[in-house]
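user: can you give me the structure for this one chain? tokens are fine.
assistant: on it. calling the predictor now.
[tool input]
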Amino acid sequence: MSRLMAGGSARRFPAARILLLVLSAAVVFVWIGAFHALQQGLVVTFLDVGEGDCLLLQSPAGRAILVDGGGRPDNPQAGEVLAARTILPALLVRGVRRLDAVVITHPHDDHIGGLPAVIRELPVGMILAPHVEGHEISPDYHHVLDLARERRIPVHLAAPGQSFHLGQGIVGTVLYAGSGFEAENLNDVSVVLRLVFGEFSALLPGDLEADGETRLLARRVYLHSTVLKVGHHGSPTSSSEAFVRTVRPELAVISVGSNPYGHPNPGVVARFRAAGTRVLRTDQNGAITLHVDGRRWHVETFR
């Protein structure tokens, strides 16, 4: 995989105006200093896209990766509105003018609905996609692939061991890609990523369910992570006791919105809390942003 790798007449100013100019300049320099300090680290943002997933990774080298693109499982057309009202404005306000990569964990509408609009509006370096042979695929996924061909965006199929580098030692690795066996549903072909920056790590399992978690655990890869993006919006079909016990996250983030499925399941939330894990939810906390310098990290919530 490619590496992400003066002249002019004198004027008199009243003392109050001079003071105002000095204070304004000070505020600007403080803001710029804070911005550059922020850019020295990794920024991970779990966007609030309702009952769906959309996560933005930004490195201090200026690289940006979007993992999934939100949407609505009950309304495929909602993805265009979501992209226009939420995803694209969020990217632009965070200074993203180009995406080095888009990662599709699996092609369900609540994960890819906003991607066609994003790909139309922003340059994309590459797309990392799962193996989906033998599964019925949504029109939005076909739309994404058609746009990729039209815009000559390379599409790579995910495989365990693939990695991408974001600079300053920030590395993302594919741990699982669902290939090589017959999954009963698309959730269990989810691309699973683990991001590492110094002492910090984040595990992103898409919507992997218990069967997929068992297969991932059987690979005996290192799963313990600082932060876990909770699988399948906190569904009881994911986050098995063995999986939670192995990952042992300090923070669990649930990307969820109003839904008829009972997500997140109270038992799943209780399981994390019993393990000493802090739980945040996009439906309650809004967008959740992690600022990481490789040793320390802190979290900010929109609400």
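assistant: here you go. The first strand starts at residue 42 and ends at 46. Residues 100 and 125 are 5 Å apart (CA to CA).
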